[in-house]
Amino acid sequence: MSKLATLFLNGERTRYEAMFEPDENPHTGVLTASWLRHVYYGAINRVVIDDLEFSVKSLERLQISGAIRVVLEPLPPNLSTLADELVYARTKFPSNQYLFEALAEEIGEMADAFRTLGDTVEARKEALQVACVAMRIATEGPDRTGEHPDTLNRMADLETFAREFFTSLKHRPDLSARS
């Protein structure tokens, strides 16, 4: 399924539009636009598809005029993307009630997306939503009125599971909290 892509060229703030037709791997495919035949392909440094940013890992000129095959490398969301998501979330859900339940739901949706879809645009959007809810808890604090009594216990059980997993590894990450 073709998607609209926004391309940025080195040193320019101008946005150019093209269509992106992904291959089996969602990070590889063909970009097409009539203006592509007039540009030095190496100048394309950033591509945005479905509000996610990618750098161009490699590209290849195709025989078809105005078409290039690209391999894209997902860029981590930047703070402005998270800020935009926070504005949207606070507008849609202004109350800070049930934030722990929302976080648990978003973590579940993210896990399901990565499990079923792999490392895709959709899965990374779920990860951004997890970060958004966590940021709301960090900045607003939770209103725990009406909270389900098992929410925090179940979340703590996930921490126990993760710590047991990391303990079983030879080279485990430092999980000590910074205070």
Question: Can you characterise this structure?
Answer:
The protein is of the alpha+beta class. It has two domains: 3-74, Thrombin, subunit H (Beta Barrel), CATH 2.40.10; 79-168, no CATH class. It is built from four helices and six strands; from the N terminus they run E-E-E-E-E-E-H-H-H-H. Strands 1-2-3-6-5-4 form a six-stranded antiparallel barrel. Helix 1 crosses helix 3 and helix 2 runs antiparallel to helix 3.
By helix and strand content, what is the structural category?
alpha+beta
Proportion of helical residues: 25-40%
Radius of gyration: 21 Å
What profile does the largest beta sheet have?
6 strands, antiparallel, barrel
Strand segment tally: 6
Whole-Å distance between the termini?
47 Å
Strand order, sheet with most strands: 1-2-3-6-5-4
Name its key features.
alpha+beta; 179 residues; 40% helix; Thrombin, subunit H; 2 domains; 4 helices
Short description:
This protein is of the alpha+beta class. It has 4 helices and 6 strands.
What is the topological layout?
Layout: E1 3-9, E2 15-22, E3 28-32, E4 44-49, E5 52-61, E6 67-74, H1 79-92, H2 99-117, H3 121-140, H4 151-168
Antiparallel strand pairs: 1-2, 1-4, 2-3, 3-6, 4-5, 5-6
Helix pairs in contact: 1-3, 2-3
